[in-house]
Amino acid sequence: MVYHRNATAETEWFKRIAAEFEAMHPEIEIQLVSAPGGLGYSERLLLLYGSGQAPDVAFNTADKVGHIVMGLALDLTPFIERDRDQLDLDDFLPGSLEPWNFDGKQMSLPLMAVGSHLFVNVDHLEQAGLPRLPNTWETEAWTWDDLVEYGKKLRRVDSQGRVIQIAVDFGEMDTSPALTWLFGGDWFDAEAYRTGIPRRIYLNTPEAIAAYEAVLDLKFEHQIMPSPITEWGVSANVHRFIAGQMSMYAHGGYWANTVRSSSPSFRWVIAPIPKAVNRTWRTYNDPMFISSATQHPDEAWEFLKFATSRRGLELFAQIWGFPPARASAMLTWVRAISDALAMNEAEIMEQIADGMRFGRSWTDSIAYTHDIRTITTKHLLPMLDGKVSVPAALDAAEREINARLAEIATSQEAAE
Protein backbone atom coordinates (compact mmCIF):
# COMPACT_ATOMS: atom_id res chain seq x y z
CA MET A 1 0.00 0.00 0.00
CA VAL A 2 1.23 3.49 -0.95
CA TYR A 3 -0.36 6.47 0.83
CA HIS A 4 -0.52 9.93 -0.75
CA ARG A 5 -2.66 13.05 -0.99
CA ASN A 6 -5.61 13.09 -3.39
CA ALA A 7 -4.69 16.24 -5.33
CA THR A 8 -5.19 15.75 -9.08
CA ALA A 9 -1.59 16.06 -10.30
CA GLU A 10 -0.26 14.12 -7.33
CA THR A 11 -2.69 11.27 -7.97
CA GLU A 12 -1.81 11.22 -11.67
CA TRP A 13 1.90 10.94 -10.86
CA PHE A 14 1.42 8.13 -8.37
CA LYS A 15 -0.74 6.22 -10.85
CA ARG A 16 1.87 6.67 -13.57
CA ILE A 17 4.85 5.50 -11.54
CA ALA A 18 2.83 2.64 -10.05
CA ALA A 19 1.96 1.45 -13.57
CA GLU A 20 5.55 1.70 -14.78
CA PHE A 21 6.84 0.01 -11.64
CA GLU A 22 4.37 -2.87 -11.95
CA ALA A 23 5.40 -3.34 -15.59
CA MET A 24 9.01 -3.75 -14.43
CA HIS A 25 8.03 -5.85 -11.39
CA PRO A 26 4.97 -7.94 -12.32
CA GLU A 27 5.37 -9.88 -9.09
CA ILE A 28 4.59 -6.72 -7.04
CA GLU A 29 1.15 -5.11 -6.97
CA ILE A 30 0.82 -1.47 -5.89
CA GLN A 31 -2.31 -0.38 -4.04
CA LEU A 32 -2.72 3.40 -3.92
CA VAL A 33 -4.61 4.97 -1.02
CA SER A 34 -5.17 8.74 -0.86
CA ALA A 35 -6.55 11.36 1.50
CA PRO A 36 -7.00 15.15 1.49
CA GLY A 37 -3.93 17.18 2.43
CA GLY A 38 -3.32 19.24 5.54
CA LEU A 39 -3.57 18.02 9.12
CA GLY A 40 -6.28 15.55 8.14
CA TYR A 41 -3.72 13.71 6.03
CA SER A 42 -1.50 13.10 9.05
CA GLU A 43 -4.46 12.19 11.23
CA ARG A 44 -5.61 9.52 8.79
CA LEU A 45 -2.06 8.20 8.55
CA LEU A 46 -1.99 7.78 12.33
CA LEU A 47 -5.38 6.06 12.21
CA LEU A 48 -4.07 3.61 9.63
CA TYR A 49 -1.15 2.79 11.91
CA GLY A 50 -3.42 2.46 14.94
CA SER A 51 -5.78 0.09 13.13
CA GLY A 52 -3.01 -2.18 11.92
CA GLN A 53 -3.41 -1.02 8.30
CA ALA A 54 -0.25 1.09 8.00
CA PRO A 55 0.85 1.75 4.42
CA ASP A 56 4.11 0.25 3.20
CA VAL A 57 5.22 3.56 1.68
CA ALA A 58 3.93 7.06 2.42
CA PHE A 59 4.38 10.50 0.94
CA ASN A 60 5.38 12.60 3.93
CA THR A 61 3.72 15.98 4.38
CA ALA A 62 2.29 18.15 7.18
CA ASP A 63 4.15 17.02 10.34
CA LYS A 64 7.02 15.51 8.36
CA VAL A 65 9.60 15.12 11.11
CA GLY A 66 6.90 14.29 13.64
CA HIS A 67 6.10 11.11 11.72
CA ILE A 68 9.73 10.11 11.98
CA VAL A 69 10.27 10.87 15.67
CA MET A 70 7.05 8.96 16.42
CA GLY A 71 8.71 5.89 14.94
CA LEU A 72 6.51 5.59 11.84
CA ALA A 73 9.44 5.46 9.40
CA LEU A 74 11.87 2.63 8.68
CA ASP A 75 15.61 3.33 8.73
CA LEU A 76 16.69 3.23 5.07
CA THR A 77 20.41 3.16 5.79
CA PRO A 78 20.90 -0.63 5.35
CA PHE A 79 19.12 -0.54 1.98
CA ILE A 80 21.10 2.51 0.86
CA GLU A 81 24.42 0.91 1.82
CA ARG A 82 23.48 -2.30 0.03
CA ASP A 83 22.34 -0.56 -3.18
CA ARG A 84 24.59 2.50 -3.11
CA ASP A 85 25.94 1.80 -6.61
CA GLN A 86 22.41 1.91 -8.03
CA LEU A 87 21.27 5.09 -6.30
CA ASP A 88 23.61 7.81 -7.65
CA LEU A 89 23.29 9.72 -4.39
CA ASP A 90 25.49 12.53 -5.71
CA ASP A 91 22.69 13.35 -8.19
CA PHE A 92 20.45 14.54 -5.35
CA LEU A 93 20.59 18.31 -4.94
CA PRO A 94 22.84 19.65 -2.16
CA GLY A 95 20.84 19.83 1.04
CA SER A 96 18.03 17.55 -0.16
CA LEU A 97 19.06 14.32 1.62
CA GLU A 98 20.46 15.84 4.82
CA PRO A 99 17.16 16.92 6.44
CA TRP A 100 16.06 13.29 6.58
CA ASN A 101 19.22 12.02 8.24
CA PHE A 102 18.82 11.83 12.01
CA ASP A 103 21.70 10.51 14.14
CA GLY A 104 23.27 9.02 11.03
CA LYS A 105 20.10 7.23 9.93
CA GLN A 106 18.55 8.10 6.58
CA MET A 107 14.81 7.99 7.26
CA SER A 108 13.35 9.28 3.96
CA LEU A 109 14.25 10.08 0.36
CA PRO A 110 13.13 13.36 -1.21
CA LEU A 111 10.82 13.95 -4.16
CA MET A 112 10.84 17.77 -4.23
CA ALA A 113 13.69 20.00 -3.15
CA VAL A 114 13.99 23.71 -3.81
CA GLY A 115 15.28 26.80 -2.05
CA SER A 116 13.81 30.27 -1.72
CA HIS A 117 14.31 33.12 -4.16
CA LEU A 118 13.39 36.71 -4.68
CA PHE A 119 10.81 36.93 -7.46
CA VAL A 120 11.58 40.17 -9.29
CA ASN A 121 9.59 42.27 -11.74
CA VAL A 122 12.26 43.22 -14.30
CA ASP A 123 10.08 45.88 -15.91
CA HIS A 124 9.82 47.71 -12.58
CA LEU A 125 13.61 47.74 -12.24
CA GLU A 126 14.08 49.18 -15.71
CA GLN A 127 11.36 51.80 -15.22
CA ALA A 128 13.13 52.93 -12.03
CA GLY A 129 16.52 53.01 -13.76
CA LEU A 130 17.86 50.19 -11.58
CA PRO A 131 20.22 47.43 -12.74
CA ARG A 132 19.18 43.80 -12.59
CA LEU A 133 20.13 41.88 -9.49
CA PRO A 134 23.11 39.50 -9.64
CA ASN A 135 22.27 35.94 -10.62
CA THR A 136 24.88 34.32 -8.38
CA TRP A 137 24.52 34.13 -4.61
CA GLU A 138 28.33 34.10 -4.35
CA THR A 139 28.65 37.86 -4.22
CA GLU A 140 29.00 40.66 -1.70
CA ALA A 141 26.66 42.74 -3.81
CA TRP A 142 22.91 42.85 -3.21
CA THR A 143 22.67 43.47 0.53
CA TRP A 144 19.87 44.43 2.90
CA ASP A 145 20.99 48.07 2.57
CA ASP A 146 20.76 47.73 -1.21
CA LEU A 147 17.23 46.38 -0.78
CA VAL A 148 16.27 49.54 1.11
CA GLU A 149 17.72 51.78 -1.60
CA TYR A 150 16.04 49.81 -4.39
CA GLY A 151 12.80 49.89 -2.45
CA LYS A 152 12.76 53.66 -2.16
CA LYS A 153 13.07 53.97 -5.94
CA LEU A 154 10.54 51.24 -6.70
CA ARG A 155 7.74 52.55 -4.48
CA ARG A 156 5.21 54.56 -6.47
CA VAL A 157 2.15 56.53 -5.41
CA ASP A 158 -0.70 58.19 -7.27
CA SER A 159 -1.62 61.88 -7.24
CA GLN A 160 -3.37 61.42 -3.88
CA GLY A 161 -0.36 59.76 -2.27
CA ARG A 162 -1.89 56.28 -2.37
CA VAL A 163 0.40 53.35 -3.14
CA ILE A 164 0.12 51.88 -6.61
CA GLN A 165 3.42 49.97 -6.53
CA ILE A 166 5.10 48.58 -3.41
CA ALA A 167 8.69 47.39 -3.43
CA VAL A 168 8.97 44.12 -1.54
CA ASP A 169 7.48 41.53 0.76
CA PHE A 170 8.71 38.35 2.43
CA GLY A 171 6.57 35.29 2.99
CA GLU A 172 6.43 33.29 6.24
CA MET A 173 8.04 35.90 8.47
CA ASP A 174 5.76 34.88 11.33
CA THR A 175 6.12 31.10 10.93
CA SER A 176 9.74 30.43 10.00
CA PRO A 177 13.21 31.07 11.46
CA ALA A 178 14.44 32.18 8.01
CA LEU A 179 14.48 35.88 8.84
CA THR A 180 16.44 35.17 12.03
CA TRP A 181 18.90 33.02 10.04
CA LEU A 182 19.40 35.92 7.63
CA PHE A 183 20.58 38.07 10.52
CA GLY A 184 22.91 35.41 11.95
CA GLY A 185 20.71 33.74 14.58
CA ASP A 186 18.57 30.63 14.96
CA TRP A 187 15.46 29.49 16.79
CA PHE A 188 16.93 26.09 17.71
CA ASP A 189 20.19 24.56 18.91
CA ALA A 190 22.32 21.98 17.10
CA GLU A 191 20.84 19.13 19.12
CA ALA A 192 17.36 19.88 17.83
CA TYR A 193 18.55 19.63 14.22
CA ARG A 194 20.54 16.46 14.96
CA THR A 195 17.62 14.60 16.51
CA GLY A 196 14.65 16.43 15.00
CA ILE A 197 13.28 16.99 18.52
CA PRO A 198 13.28 20.58 19.82
CA ARG A 199 13.49 20.88 23.61
CA ARG A 200 13.64 24.69 23.58
CA ILE A 201 13.11 27.55 21.19
CA TYR A 202 15.25 30.70 21.27
CA LEU A 203 13.22 33.61 19.94
CA ASN A 204 14.09 36.57 22.14
CA THR A 205 17.68 36.90 20.94
CA PRO A 206 19.69 39.90 19.68
CA GLU A 207 19.72 38.43 16.15
CA ALA A 208 15.96 37.88 16.03
CA ILE A 209 15.29 41.33 17.48
CA ALA A 210 17.56 42.92 14.87
CA ALA A 211 15.86 40.94 12.09
CA TYR A 212 12.30 41.88 12.98
CA GLU A 213 13.17 45.50 13.72
CA ALA A 214 14.78 45.71 10.28
CA VAL A 215 11.53 44.45 8.75
CA LEU A 216 9.49 46.96 10.74
CA ASP A 217 11.76 49.69 9.35
CA LEU A 218 10.85 48.50 5.83
CA LYS A 219 7.18 48.68 6.75
CA PHE A 220 6.87 51.87 8.77
CA GLU A 221 9.98 54.02 8.29
CA HIS A 222 10.71 53.43 4.61
CA GLN A 223 7.17 52.26 3.72
CA ILE A 224 8.45 49.95 1.00
CA MET A 225 6.73 46.81 2.40
CA PRO A 226 2.96 46.39 2.92
CA SER A 227 1.78 47.34 6.41
CA PRO A 228 -1.40 48.48 8.18
CA ILE A 229 -0.60 52.07 7.22
CA THR A 230 -0.31 51.27 3.49
CA GLU A 231 -3.13 53.06 1.71
CA TRP A 232 -3.56 51.35 -1.63
CA GLY A 233 -4.67 53.25 -4.70
CA VAL A 234 -5.25 50.02 -6.64
CA SER A 235 -7.03 46.79 -5.82
CA ALA A 236 -5.93 43.26 -6.63
CA ASN A 237 -7.78 39.95 -6.73
CA VAL A 238 -4.51 38.02 -7.04
CA HIS A 239 -1.17 38.31 -5.25
CA ARG A 240 0.15 41.84 -5.74
CA PHE A 241 3.37 40.60 -7.32
CA ILE A 242 1.37 38.72 -9.96
CA ALA A 243 -0.87 41.78 -10.39
CA GLY A 244 2.20 43.90 -11.18
CA GLN A 245 1.80 45.99 -8.02
CA MET A 246 4.79 44.58 -6.11
CA SER A 247 8.33 44.64 -7.43
CA MET A 248 9.93 41.83 -5.40
CA TYR A 249 8.60 38.93 -3.36
CA ALA A 250 10.61 36.31 -1.44
CA HIS A 251 9.13 32.82 -1.60
CA GLY A 252 9.93 29.18 -2.33
CA GLY A 253 11.13 28.45 -5.85
CA TYR A 254 8.14 26.18 -6.46
CA TRP A 255 6.02 29.38 -6.63
CA ALA A 256 7.42 29.86 -10.14
CA ASN A 257 4.67 27.51 -11.33
CA THR A 258 2.01 29.77 -9.83
CA VAL A 259 3.47 32.90 -11.40
CA ARG A 260 3.89 31.20 -14.77
CA SER A 261 0.34 29.83 -14.85
CA SER A 262 -1.00 33.32 -14.03
CA SER A 263 0.55 34.71 -17.25
CA PRO A 264 1.60 38.08 -15.78
CA SER A 265 1.92 41.01 -18.17
CA PHE A 266 5.52 41.78 -17.16
CA ARG A 267 8.95 40.17 -17.42
CA TRP A 268 10.17 38.47 -14.25
CA VAL A 269 13.16 36.57 -12.88
CA ILE A 270 14.21 34.76 -9.72
CA ALA A 271 17.17 36.23 -7.86
CA PRO A 272 19.17 35.89 -4.62
CA ILE A 273 17.77 36.77 -1.23
CA PRO A 274 19.43 40.03 -0.07
CA LYS A 275 22.36 39.55 2.29
CA ALA A 276 22.12 40.79 5.88
CA VAL A 277 24.65 38.89 8.01
CA ASN A 278 24.36 36.06 5.47
CA ARG A 279 22.04 35.04 2.63
CA THR A 280 20.38 32.05 4.33
CA TRP A 281 16.66 31.49 3.78
CA ARG A 282 14.55 28.36 3.95
CA THR A 283 14.39 25.33 1.67
CA TYR A 284 11.40 23.12 0.90
CA ASN A 285 11.64 19.35 0.80
CA ASP A 286 8.88 16.75 0.40
CA PRO A 287 9.97 13.13 0.93
CA MET A 288 8.65 9.58 0.96
CA PHE A 289 9.34 7.01 3.66
CA ILE A 290 8.86 3.29 4.21
CA SER A 291 6.62 2.37 7.11
CA SER A 292 8.27 0.83 10.14
CA ALA A 293 5.25 -1.50 10.25
CA THR A 294 5.60 -2.79 6.68
CA GLN A 295 5.46 -6.51 6.08
CA HIS A 296 7.07 -6.00 2.68
CA PRO A 297 10.26 -3.98 3.27
CA ASP A 298 12.14 -5.20 0.19
CA GLU A 299 9.24 -4.55 -2.17
CA ALA A 300 8.64 -1.15 -0.56
CA TRP A 301 12.30 -0.27 -1.02
CA GLU A 302 12.20 -1.21 -4.71
CA PHE A 303 9.19 1.08 -5.20
CA LEU A 304 10.82 3.95 -3.28
CA LYS A 305 14.00 3.56 -5.32
CA PHE A 306 12.03 3.85 -8.55
CA ALA A 307 9.89 6.76 -7.34
CA THR A 308 13.00 8.77 -6.44
CA SER A 309 15.06 7.67 -9.46
CA ARG A 310 15.82 9.99 -12.35
CA ARG A 311 12.90 8.53 -14.31
CA GLY A 312 10.51 8.86 -11.38
CA LEU A 313 11.51 12.46 -10.71
CA GLU A 314 11.41 13.48 -14.37
CA LEU A 315 7.79 12.32 -14.33
CA PHE A 316 7.36 14.18 -11.05
CA ALA A 317 8.54 17.42 -12.71
CA GLN A 318 6.36 16.86 -15.79
CA ILE A 319 3.15 15.78 -14.07
CA TRP A 320 3.26 17.26 -10.59
CA GLY A 321 4.91 20.44 -11.82
CA PHE A 322 7.25 20.93 -8.86
CA PRO A 323 11.07 21.05 -8.84
CA PRO A 324 12.50 17.54 -8.34
CA ALA A 325 15.21 16.60 -5.86
CA ARG A 326 17.61 15.21 -8.48
CA ALA A 327 19.83 17.47 -10.57
CA SER A 328 19.43 15.16 -13.58
CA ALA A 329 15.65 15.62 -13.46
CA MET A 330 15.71 19.34 -12.65
CA LEU A 331 16.29 20.34 -16.27
CA THR A 332 12.85 18.88 -17.07
CA TRP A 333 11.26 21.35 -14.66
CA VAL A 334 13.48 24.24 -15.74
CA ARG A 335 12.55 23.74 -19.39
CA ALA A 336 8.87 23.74 -18.43
CA ILE A 337 9.10 27.18 -16.77
CA SER A 338 11.89 28.83 -18.80
CA ASP A 339 9.51 30.21 -21.42
CA ALA A 340 7.93 32.39 -18.72
CA LEU A 341 11.09 33.85 -17.17
CA ALA A 342 13.41 36.51 -18.54
CA MET A 343 16.30 34.10 -17.92
CA ASN A 344 17.97 31.34 -19.87
CA GLU A 345 18.09 27.73 -18.68
CA ALA A 346 21.66 28.01 -17.35
CA GLU A 347 20.76 31.06 -15.25
CA ILE A 348 17.72 29.32 -13.82
CA MET A 349 19.75 26.20 -12.98
CA GLU A 350 22.36 28.38 -11.23
CA GLN A 351 19.64 30.06 -9.18
CA ILE A 352 18.06 26.76 -8.16
CA ALA A 353 21.45 25.29 -7.15
CA ASP A 354 22.44 28.38 -5.15
CA GLY A 355 19.06 28.55 -3.41
CA MET A 356 19.64 25.02 -2.12
CA ARG A 357 23.31 25.56 -1.24
CA PHE A 358 22.64 28.73 0.73
CA GLY A 359 19.36 27.52 2.22
CA ARG A 360 18.44 25.57 5.34
CA SER A 361 15.56 23.26 6.16
CA TRP A 362 12.99 24.10 8.78
CA THR A 363 9.78 22.04 8.77
CA ASP A 364 11.89 19.31 7.17
CA SER A 365 14.26 19.18 10.16
CA ILE A 366 12.22 20.00 13.26
CA ALA A 367 9.21 18.18 14.75
CA TYR A 368 6.08 19.75 16.26
CA THR A 369 6.08 22.56 13.72
CA HIS A 370 2.29 22.85 13.73
CA ASP A 371 2.32 23.71 17.45
CA ILE A 372 5.28 26.04 17.03
CA ARG A 373 3.87 27.90 14.03
CA THR A 374 0.45 28.30 15.62
CA ILE A 375 2.04 30.07 18.59
CA THR A 376 4.49 32.18 16.58
CA THR A 377 1.66 33.38 14.34
CA LYS A 378 -0.38 34.31 17.40
CA HIS A 379 2.38 36.56 18.77
CA LEU A 380 4.40 37.67 15.74
CA LEU A 381 1.61 38.85 13.45
CA PRO A 382 0.59 41.65 15.87
CA MET A 383 4.28 42.50 16.22
CA LEU A 384 4.68 42.72 12.44
CA ASP A 385 1.66 45.03 12.36
CA GLY A 386 3.43 47.33 14.81
CA LYS A 387 0.98 46.65 17.65
CA VAL A 388 3.45 44.96 20.03
CA SER A 389 7.14 45.65 20.58
CA VAL A 390 9.58 43.16 19.07
CA PRO A 391 11.17 42.03 22.38
CA ALA A 392 7.78 41.66 24.09
CA ALA A 393 6.30 39.57 21.26
CA LEU A 394 9.36 37.35 20.94
CA ASP A 395 9.51 36.82 24.69
CA ALA A 396 5.83 35.90 24.91
CA ALA A 397 6.08 33.47 21.98
CA GLU A 398 9.25 31.92 23.38
CA ARG A 399 7.72 31.30 26.80
CA GLU A 400 4.52 29.81 25.38
CA ILE A 401 6.33 27.53 22.94
CA ASN A 402 8.79 26.30 25.55
CA ALA A 403 5.88 25.48 27.84
CA ARG A 404 4.26 23.52 25.03
CA LEU A 405 7.50 21.67 24.22
CA ALA A 406 7.83 20.75 27.89
CA GLU A 407 4.27 19.36 27.83
CA ILE A 408 5.08 17.26 24.78
CA ALA A 409 8.27 15.91 26.39
CA THR A 410 6.40 15.02 29.59
CA SER A 411 3.67 13.25 27.59
CA GLN A 412 6.24 11.25 25.64
CA GLU A 413 8.10 10.22 28.79
CA ALA A 414 4.83 9.05 30.33
CA ALA A 415 4.00 7.03 27.20
CA GLU A 416 7.36 5.31 27.34
**Overall pLDDT:** 95
Report, as a whole number of angstroms, the end-to-end distance. 29 Å
Q: What is the strand arrangement across the widest sheet? A: 2-1-3-12-6
Largest sheet: 5 strands, mixed
Molecular shape: globular
Provide the CATH topology of the largest domain: D-Maltodextrin-Binding Protein, domain 2
Structural class estimated from helices and strands: alpha/beta
Q: Bin the strand percentage.
A: 5-15%
Low confidence ranges: none
Fold topology:
Layout (H helix, E strand, L loop, with lengths): L1 E4 L2 H17 L7 E4 L3 H12 L6 E3 L4 H6 L7 H6 L1 H4 L13 E2 L2 E2 L2 E6 L1 E6 H6 L16 H11 L1 E2 L5 E8 L7 H5 L7 H6 L10 H16 L24 E7 L3 H6 L6 E4 L12 E7 L6 H11 L2 H11 L6 H11 L7 H14 L10 H16 L5 H26 L1
Parallel strand pairs: 1-2, 1-3, 9-10
Antiparallel strand pairs: 3-12, 4-5, 6-12, 7-10, 7-11, 8-9
Helix pairs in contact: 1-13, 13-14, 16-17
